[in-house]
Amino acid sequence: MPGNTMLTILIDGIAYGMLLFVMALGLAVTLGLMNFVNLAHGAFAMIGGYVTALAMNRLGVPFLLTLPFAFLIPALVGLVAERTLYVRMYRRSHLDHVLFSIALVFMSIAGADWLLGSSQMLITLPPWLQGRFEVLGVGIGRYRAFLIVVCAALVIVLQMVLAGTRFGARLRASVDDQRAARGLGINVNRIFALTFATGSGLAGLGGALGIEIMGLDPTFPLKILVYVLIVVTIGGTASLTGPFLAALIIGTADVAGKYYVPELGAFLIYLLMIVLLILRPQGLIAPAR
């Protein structure tokens, strides 16, 4: 039935959008809160993806048990990179940020290709995440439903941390005025390092969760870079709500476009981006004045 098909596409689109949002979270945080353009964000997502793929395929670790490591290892790599590399770039121009992080992207691609080869790496999901089930005649992919639940939980937890905890308050104070924050005894360097590490870990988790949908090979950072940039650009960086809405719109439009007009490919996504930027150049959620 057409109605059921549309609902199935909508659910698949929401799941894809949730995945895009988790992968874009780190860039949204570093750009919106730390004012740093980190285009190497996809490299941390690739690390998380390879952690899960290698743990499952070579060590036989169950899928769910690999996810904490897909978060922790990219987070640790991000923490080291932030303290040794990124911290030296904070006061530089956005152009310097872009050139620096793009260089890291291509270095990560070359490194992955050298260490692990250029072929695509696949994983086999546990049986309970395979196939589909029906709710009121609507077919829902088990893994898509799993993505929606996990990503929604991450969104809620992150929003609670940023809005309702002492760490979130200290982060906002550090972003607004570093000198005043330091005067109040806040360790701004530690706050930024933990924020960057968390964003890198979330990217890694998104990369692990995205293997089944997007595949995994050394070009993964470039593959997701365009989508992540579209999400952050359309959504804006005033809050996490904008990128969240943008990710849902882009995810649903991409799935619907591939189903109804597959010959147009990604053209519809770019067309939608242009239209939304013309209508809302400041982002879906305008910054507070």
Short description:
The chain has one domain. Helix content is 73%, strand content 3%.
What is the distance, rounded to the nearest whole angstrom, between the alpha carbons of the first and last residues?
A: 48 Å
Helix content: over 70%
Strand content: under 5%
The domain tally reads: 1
Task: Please tally the helical runs, counting DSSP H or I stretches of 4 or more residues.
Answer: 12
- What Rg is obtained from the alpha carbons, in whole angstroms? 19 Å
Global morphology: globular
Regions with little confidence, pLDDT below 50 for 5+ residues: none
Instruction: Report the mean per-residue pLDDT as an integer.
Output: 82
Give structural attributes.
single chain; 289 residues; mainly alpha; two-stranded antiparallel ribbon; 12 helices; 3% strand
Architecture overview:
There is one protein chain. This protein has 289 residues and is an all-alpha fold. It has one domain (2-217). The protein has 12 helices and 2 strands; from the N terminus they run H-H-H-H-E-E-H-H-H-H-H-H-H-H. A two-stranded antiparallel ribbon has the order 1-2. The model has no long low-confidence stretch (mean pLDDT 82).
